[in-house]
Amino acid sequence: MAIIVVDVMLKPEILDPQGKAVASALPRLGFSFATDVRQGKRFEITVDGEPTAAQLAEVEVAAEKLLSNPVIENFTVRVEK
Amino acid sequence: MKIGVVTFPGTLDDRDAARAVRFAGGEAIELWHDDADLKGVDAVILPGGFSYGDYLRCGAISRFSPVMEPLIAAAKGGMPLLGICNGFQVLAEAHLIPGALTRNQHLHFLCTDQKIRIENNATAWTNSFAKGQEVVIPLKNGEGSYQCDDETLKMLEGEGRIIARYVGENPNGSRNLIAGISNERGNIVGLMPHPEHAIDSLTGPSSDGLGFFTSVLTSLVAGGVK
Predict the structure, then answer these.
(1) Which of B16, B34, B72, B159 is buried deepest, with most CB atoms within 10 A?
(2) Chain-centroid distance, C-alpha B83
(3) Are the beta carbons of B13 and B46 closer than 8 angstroms?
(4) Is B194 annotated in the active site?
(5) Distance CA B159, CA A70 (A)
(6) Residue B85 bears catalytic tag
(7) A15-70 pLDDT, tens per residue?
């Protein structure tokens, strides 16, 4: 069993109001480290055995077609060890 | 004239949309998300609501419903198709119109009577209005901020495909105050505010919204989109 992780983030040029809200909440808790926060989505996809190259290629297609909206989002695919 | 109204799991405004169609003089036909059957309708409305609970992204799962396959084919062939609010989001996810709808800039859910200006009255869904006419219809959404890249925005402006704009303060952060856009041909329109909630003074803030529904009937009688 392995887990394929797909991370989806809004493209840098797209305004992320949720991230902004988090960024402005941090100082209220006394945290002053953040200059910016961006919020995204993480998908954990479980497969049997070690993922094959063909499976990963299919995940790429699924990520582009369903898991992300390429108009406003970028994604990365990786296998979690 | 038969106007189909699609119901997805989580759709809210299908009954009001069907009522608006009947008020305008059309026959409303219920379409079900799980049936790949358009039942011989002449035009289709994707109504507002929270299809599939807005999971993943608004409209992202509905876009792959069985009904969407024949619907996308028919709309690409010129059949009038109106997406209201969540329906607008489904149109964007299906890439029938450019751009995307994102979280309101201020993060609040909006529910207000909104003034909009009709910028293009040559589409299948706006021909009952005068160009530049200002109308008041309800706006209620959490993810209504229209976003696209600069090139797309320039193209939409240049081709007159911004069919309606918010008047006054920007309610949700939409680029260039966009309330609605159309495809190149003008048969497909996505609209964030809700004309189906403003068809008579008894139940809405105005009867201004009725024009969207009379427009499509006029367009169909005239033999389709100009």
Answers:
(1) B16
(2) 3
(3) no
(4) yes
(5) 23
(6) yes
(7) 899 999 999 999 999 999 999 999 999 999 999 999 999 999 999 999 999 999 99
Helix (H), strand (E) counts: chain B: 5, 11
ipTM given for this complex: 0.84
Residues of B in contact with A22 (CB under 8 A): none
Give A13's contacts (C-beta < 8 A, 6+ positions apart).
Answer: B149
- Spatial distance between the Cα atoms of B126 and B215, rounded to a whole number of angstroms: 6
Residue A10 C-alpha, separation from nearest chain B C-alpha, in angstroms? 10
Tell me the residue type at B195: P
Best mutation target, B55, B95, B103, B152, to test chain A (most A CBs within 10 A): B103
CA-CA distance, B4 to B79, in Å (whole number)? 11
* Pairing status of strand A41-47 against strand A2-10: antiparallel
H/E segment holding residue B116: strand B110-118
Cα torsion A50, A54, A55, A56: sign: positive
Question: Which residues share a beta bridge with A5?
Answer: A44, A78
- Would you state the structure tokens that stand for residue B180, as one six-digit string? 């609605």
DSSP conformation class of A27 = G
Q: Where are the domains of chain A?
A: 2-80
* DSSP character at residue B186: S
| B208–chain A Cβ distance below 8 A for any pair | no
Full-model pTM: 0.93
Cα separation, B167 vs B45, whole angstroms: 25
